[in-house]
Predict the 3D structure of the following.
Amino acid sequence: MANFFTRLIDKFLGEPVIDWDELEADLIAADIGAKRVIPLIEELQEKDDQDACDIVDHIKARLRSAFPEKLPVLPAPQPGRPCVLMLVGVNGAGKTTSAAKLGYYLKRRGHRVLLAAADTFRAAAVEQLDSWAARLELPLYKGRPNQDPASVCYEAHTRALADGVDYLICDTAGRLHTRHNLMEELAKIRRSLAKQEPTAPHACYLVVDATTGGNALMQATEFHKATPLDGVIITKMDGSGKGGVAVAIQDALHISPVYLGTGEGKDDLRPFRVNEYIDTLL
Ligand SMILES: Nc1nc2c(ncn2[C@@H]2O[C@H](COP(=O)(O)OP(=O)(O)OP(=O)(O)O)[C@@H](O)[C@H]2O)c(=O)[nH]1
Ligand SMILES: [Mg+2]
């Protein structure tokens, strides 16, 4: 698939006049968000040099500057104190798959990892993480069916502390950001994790499907209210979604992307890097 910007250059090269409406529509369709796109188009229209390549370079530079110079990094575990990560998001966003992939990523870097299956609503959810854990040879803490997810996380944390684990990754159930009681449950999970270690969870990441489009910003806004987010994992970057929502979330909420999911395989997770993202993924 041609790169978004290559297509943009092809489209406007040789055109006597840039079709600003079309350019605006393309950027909005990439889910970058009107908040950034509209002022950007106005700024471009005022430029003396309106060569298509310059325009594209200008857009790239502006998008690059949306992200902070220092992107958040995964917190480091302290001796005897596991770093606790919580993955949250709407149904089907890719939390369970990302928990497994992240666990594998950390294991390959020499860390001891424990996965916690805190989605006790669906038996299939626990089985799904169980099968990933078996395949990737990662230990898993499973709760009982319908056990309170906060209590599963508490028990998993106890085990992580006892076993000298570096990273505990808690996979939570999918929930609609509009369901107040389900969102409240996230706060309860946080509180239960903080009981044994006041600084836990050390990071809470929202998992967002790149194909969701603009709704992802709404999800981020609501989840951030329920449980402060430390970063975003954008999944399905290999699909039809352009992933521009990372810019929209950064702009609106100042929450940065941390990892990108690029497929369904164990290796299909990579740390977010701004230049790579702007150059190849949009
Ligand atoms: N192509 C692709 N598929 C992905 C990616 N991440 C997850 N998936 C797929 O998306 C589907 C949903 O993924 P899950 O990990 O089960 O999503 P979830 O957020 O845990 O879902 P719930 O627990 O039901 O809320 C599965 O079929 C995954 O294989 C990705 O980066 N790329
Ligand atoms: Mg799941």
Q: What stands out?
A: The beta strands are 83-88, 113-118, 140-142, 167-172, 203-209, 231-235, 257-261, 269-271. The radius of gyration is 20 Å. The first strand starts at residue 83 and ends at 88. The chain has a mean pLDDT of 91.
